[in-house]
Automatic annotation (TrEMBL):
Classification via PROSITE patterns: LTD (PS51841)
Domain of life: Eukaryota
Lineage of the species this protein comes from: Eukaryota, Metazoa, Spiralia, Gnathifera, Rotifera
CC annotations in GO: nuclear lamina
MF term (GO), any: structural constituent of cytoskeleton
Coiled-coil blocks: 93-127
Keyword DNA repair: no
GO annotation, biological process: heterochromatin formation; nuclear envelope organization; nuclear migration; nuclear pore localization; protein localization to nuclear envelope
Compositionally biased intervals (Basic and acidic residues): 341-368, 396-406
Identification of the protein by name: LTD domain-containing protein
This protein's UniProt keywords: Coiled coil
Region annotation (Disordered) ranges: 329-368, 381-406, 499-519
Length: 693
């Protein structure tokens, strides 16, 4: 370390360094004074080093003893105490440093005084005129005096240092004793805690011994109960041996019943095969018969109408040419019109009316033929239903008869149900083929009737142009279909649709059309009007006030729709049904068949919707039907029909999206409610059907 370093920057270096300079003097006492000051400084530094080392060792030892214990709070408290003590020691050292700086300043003053004194002594000796040996002797005496003073001062300094060291040691011992007392108190607290824990463990041990005694008593009691139960079990074994003998007898009886069951199953199988042969022959004969008769009737109708049209066209053309030539000849001659010409025109009109009546009779004939075919179809359907009812009754009898053997004849029951399913599939396939044929017949007859109406209208227009007769047809729409749109004011945006069926009446020449043909025309017109016009009525109730906006809505260019005419009784049933519908969102129940054949779901949104895990619940007069959607995505602006297993259509007839349920059909009754739920169990649509009296 350099002599010029300030003292206050050298506190942490372990030794104190005094920034004084050593002057080279010839006097011996001056050197002794300097050495004395340096010696004092070294002693003070050693004292500081010793006190710091002892304090650090004591602090580390006390801290280790405290940390080794479990009293964390006491350890933290002692650490804080030691830190405060170190801070106080640093303050004391700072004060000592200040005092030492004052001492150094005082020594500098003494050094200056010493120098002045030396100069004065030398000047005094020179003034005295002391030279040579006397001067040497005088300086030697002065050195002896200085040496004695140095020894005296050294002894004083040593005594002061020893006293300070003793004070420091005493203070260290006091600190160690205080720490020892703290550790002793800590150990006493731990001893008391251990003693309390020992008492608790002894109490727990006594409780465990008590529970052990109780468990031994329970084991003894259970041993006695076990011996008693073992004795009972021996008695039960004797009884079970008797039961085993009885069981063997029952098994023998079951075997005999199984043989009887196999015999009855063989008889049932033969009966089922006979039914299958009858059904196949019935289906094949009816299909061929209706196809041949339909082709024959169709060809006859085409030939008759072509011949009739040609004859009427030629006759009318010839008559008009003859009449025109006569009129032109009379006009050219200037002759007046005679009553004979009027008579001829009346005769011609009578002939046309007679031909019209003949066409009407022919139309009635074909209408009667259609009715006969319809009755024949219903009769065959009733026969098929009778066969199905007989089959179901026979199955129910067999099921009731063999219910007692349900647990022991599982394999035989599986075979029975397999045969039953095969018979159901055959019956369903026959039912579907008959229904498809009926749809084809209805569509063909519908086209024939439309062509016949067109020909009649053509003949009427021709008669009107000739000026002989005039036939007027007026169609009055008594009930104009409307859309009632209601904009709800609340947040609940349910839309309610109340649908009622109205058919427009068609008026014409009552003498020309028979009653049956007029009914048929009204039914067909009603169906086409329902497909041509959209009829909706939206109603919302907000605080018992209803605001309704009514406006007419009609398709300007109706899309061509393929029709399948239903039976007359079903059409009448549809007219008596009152429908209420509501929906929330873009998925709704578009229509539900009254007879329970299908439920139609529509997506009115602009994006496809995933209907996976959605489900439908239908309540029919207390009966409940539930259907869960499979993994299915419904495209935008499309609908899907969910058919019952009995009524599912063939893929060759229709290409519409369809799903099939596992149950027979959706059921029918007087009060029918159908609800659509999403996969998070929220109701999305509601469709109610009520049959009026």
């Amino acid at each position: 370390m350099s002599p010029g370093v300030p003292f206050h920057n050298l506190k942490t270096e372990g030794l104190w360094h005094f920034p004084f300079k050593i002057y080279s003097k010839n006097t011996h006492w001056h050197r002794n004074l300097k050495s004395t000051v340096v010696y004092c400084t070294i002693l003070m530094a050693l004292v500081q080093r010793f006190t710091s080392t002892v304090s650090a060792q004591h602090t580390a030892g006390g801290t280790y003893d405290l940390i080794s214990g479990d009293g964390t709070a006491n350890v933290l408290k002692d650490i804080a105490t030691v830190q405060n003590r170190d801070l106080m020691e640093k303050q004391q050292l700072n004060s000592l440093n200040d005092r030492l700086e004052d001492l150094i300043g005082y020594l500098d003053g003494l050094e200056a005084a010493n120098k002045q004194l030396s100069d004065d002594i030398h000047s005094l000796i020179d003034s005295w005129g002391i030279t040579g040996e006397n001067r040497f002797r005088l300086l030697q005496d002065l050195d002896q005096v200085l040496s004695r003073l140095k020894d005296t001062n050294r002894n004083k300094i040593i005594l002061n240092v020893e006293s300070k060291i003793f004070d420091e040691q005493a203070e260290i011992l006091n600190r160690i004793s205080a720490m020892y007392m703290d550790v002793l108190n800590l150990y006493q607290e731990k001893y008391s805690i251990i003693k309390d824990l020992q008492g608790e463990l002894e109490d727990e041990f006594r409780k465990i011994q008590h529970r052990l005694q109780l468990s031994d008593e329970q084991v003894k009691k259970l041993d006695q109960d076990y011996r008693a139960e073992l004795e009972k079990f021996r008695q039960y074994m004797i009884e079970w041996s008797k039961i085993a003998l009885e069981k063997q007898q029952i098994v023998n009886e079951i075997q005999s019943l199984k043989e009887q069951y196999n015999l009855k199953m063989a008889l049932n199988h033969e009966e089922i095969l006979e039914w299958q042969r009858l059904l196949q022959r019935f289906s094949h004969d009816s299909t061929n018969y209706y196809k041949d008769s339909l082709e024959t009737i169709k060809q006859q109708i085409y030939n008759d109408y072509e011949q009739m049209a040609k004859e009427q066209h030629l006759e009318i053309e010839q008559t008009l040419k003859t009449r025109l030539s006569e009129i032109q000849e009379k006009v050219s001659r200037g002759l007046p019109m005679s009553d004979q010409g009027e008579q001829k025109r009346l005769e011609q009109s009578n002939r046309f009316e007679s031909k019209l009546e003949e066409s009407q009779h022919e139309h009635d004939h074909w209408n009667n033929e259609y009715r006969r075919l319809l009755e024949d179809t219903q009769r065959k359907r009733r026969q098929l239903q009778d066969l199905e009812s007989e089959q179901n009754s026979q199955q129910q009898k067999d099921h009731n008869q063999h219910e007692r053997l349900k647990q022991t004849t599982n394999t035989l029951k599986e075979e029975y149900y397999q045969m039953k399913d095969e018979l159901d599939r055959l019956a369903y396939s026959l039912r579907f083929s008959v229904e498809e044929e009926l749809k084809i017949y209805e569509a063909l007859l519908n086209s024939l009737h439309r062509k016949k109406d067109e020909r009649i209208n053509l003949n009427q227009r021709r008669i009107i142009t000739s000026g002989s007769t005039t036939i007027e047809q007026q169609e009055h729409d008594r009930n104009i279909p409307t859309i009632r749109i209601e904009e709800p004011n609340g947040t609940n945006r349910w839309q309610f649709d109340t649908l009622s069926r109205h058919s427009s009446t068609q008026s014409g020449d009552k003498d020309r059309l028979a009653s049956t043909s007029s009914n048929y025309a009204e039914q067909y017109k009603s169906k086409t009007d329902m497909e041509k016009y959209d009829f909706e009525q939206n109603i919302t109730d907000k605080n018992k006030t209803t605001t309704t906006t009514v406006r007419q809505f009609i398709h300007v260019t109706p899309q061509p729709v393929s029709h399948t005419l239903s039976e007359i009784d079903e059409e009448l049933l549809q007219k008596k049904v009152h429908i209420t519908r509501k929906y929330k969102g873009t998925i709704l129940i578009k229509f539900v068949d009254v007879s329970g054949r299908f439920v139609e779901i529509e997506n009115m949104g602009d994006y496809p919707r995933d209907l996976t895990d959605w489900y439908i619940i239908r309540d029919v007069d207390g009966r409940r039907f539930e259907y869960n959607f499979p993994v299915y995505e419904l495209e935008q602006h499309t609908s899907v029909r969910i058919y019952g297993n009995y009524h599912r259509p063939s893929n060759d007839i229709t290409n519409e999206p369809q799903l099939i349920t596992k149950f027979h059909d959706w059921g029918n009754g007087r009060s029918m409610e159908t609800r659509l739920y999403s996969k998070d169990n929220k109701e999305k649509a509601f469709f109610e059907q009520t049959i009026r009296e």
